[in-house]
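Quick log. Single chain, no ligands specified.
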Amino acid sequence: MDEVELVQNEDTEKSAPRPGNAPVTSTESAPHLPDQQDSARPQRTRIPLV
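-> predicted structure:
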């Protein structure tokens, strides 16, 4: 699901109003624990979002 966010550039239009490109993933990782989520996903989606 992580890589899908990056691949689906056209989906960005739908995800625009959301905090990141993901409805749940970015919401959980960004405000709560970005470090742990960042380590879990080795520089895939977190880098472009952050």
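Residues 19 and 27 are 7 Å apart (CA to CA).
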